[in-house]
């Protein structure tokens, strides 16, 4: 009888523990869901982004999967509302890099050797195009105009993980100053050199003014239902000479999967139009 009472006590304790863990988990999910206020979501929606993909980051809110919107972005009025409903033409932001010809220095801070090697690959890819906008490594020990650094963040309560992010040029004509790579084991630290180079090339594209090629229909590369990202207060201006037909190999597709990408012919047309 004594053993039976003891067993019931242990069972009761176990049930209590499971219930407690469940409550803590639910509270954690609720807390994370409430991290982004309704007013902030309303601002993001007003700019044209789909709010179900928004993630809270240290310096702002991640949209489109890899674009960091700061509070300043959210408070800026839209300068250009050019929304061409197409499939995969190339689009640029209202702001692009000015004062050409110009050389942009790039640094890598606190990341392992693969990221440094990937940067060398990407610098060569851009510079081989002969643009008026060139890139070079910042002097050792100094921070470049664009700094590539890491952050550590695991999957959120929906199982999503941020892999990398960039931003858009400033109104003064400077590129966005930062690119972030997630050093979590499920992030890009575990990827190959070519995969890292492909993503870095893509994020630099954002930093100098490129929107996603399929911004008007993210379903083209990401799957799911049709989803127009909107002009987002930063503009979505079609680049002349780029095709309206689907372009499955563009380096600026919203979702590129695990296949490394570099520039295709249409990407080169777009880069030449802006920076040749």
TrEMBL record:
User: Carries keyword Ion transport?
Assistant: no
Q: Which UniProt keywords apply?
A: Signal
Q: Name one Pfam family in it.
A: Peptidase_M57
Q: Where is the signal peptide?
A: 1-22
In terms of InterPro entries, this protein maps to: MetalloPept_cat_dom_sf (IPR024079), Peptidase_M10/M27/M57 (IPR024653)
A single GO molecular-function term is: metallopeptidase activity
Enumerate the Gene3D superfamilies for this protein.
Collagenase (Catalytic Domain)
Record bears the keyword Signal: yes
Specify the protein name: Dual-action HEIGH metallo-peptidase
Taxonomy, top ranks, is: Bacteria, Pseudomonadati, Bacteroidota, Sphingobacteriia, Sphingobacteriales
């Amino acid at each position: 009888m004594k053993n039976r009472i003891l067993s019931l006590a242990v069972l009761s304790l176990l049930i209590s523990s499971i219930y407690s863990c469940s409550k803590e988990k639910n509270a954690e999910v609720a807390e994370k869901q409430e991290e982004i206020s309704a007013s902030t979501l309303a601002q993001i929606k007003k700019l044209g982004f789909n709010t179900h993909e928004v993630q809270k980051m240290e310096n702002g809110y991640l949209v489109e999967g890899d674009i960091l919107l700061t509070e300043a972005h959210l408070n800026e009025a839209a300068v250009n509302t050019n929304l061409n409903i197409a499939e995969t033409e190339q689009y640029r932001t209202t702001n692009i890099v000015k004062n050409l010809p110009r050389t942009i220095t790039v640094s890598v801070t606190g990341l392992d050797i693969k990221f440094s090697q990937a940067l060398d690959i990407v610098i060569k890819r851009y510079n081989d195009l002969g643009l008026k906008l060139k890139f070079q490594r910042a002097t050792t020990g100094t921070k470049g105009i664009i700094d590539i650094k890491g952050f550590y963040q695991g999957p959120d309560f929906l199982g999503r993980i941020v892999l990398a992010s960039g931003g858009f040029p400033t109104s003064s004509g400077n590129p966005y100053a930062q690119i972030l790579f997630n050093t979590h084991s499920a992030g890009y630290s575990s990827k190959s050199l070519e995969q890292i180079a492909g993503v870095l090339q893509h994020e630099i594209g954002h930093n100098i003014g490129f929107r996603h090629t399929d911004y008007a229909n993210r379903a083209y590369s990401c799957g799911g239902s049709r989803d127009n990202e909107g002009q987002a207060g930063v503009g979505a201006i079609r680049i002349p000479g780029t095709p309206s037909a689907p372009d499955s190999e563009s380096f600026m597709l919203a979702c590129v999967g695990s296949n490394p990408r570099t520039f295709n012919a249409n990407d080169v047309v777009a880069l030449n139009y802006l920076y040749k």
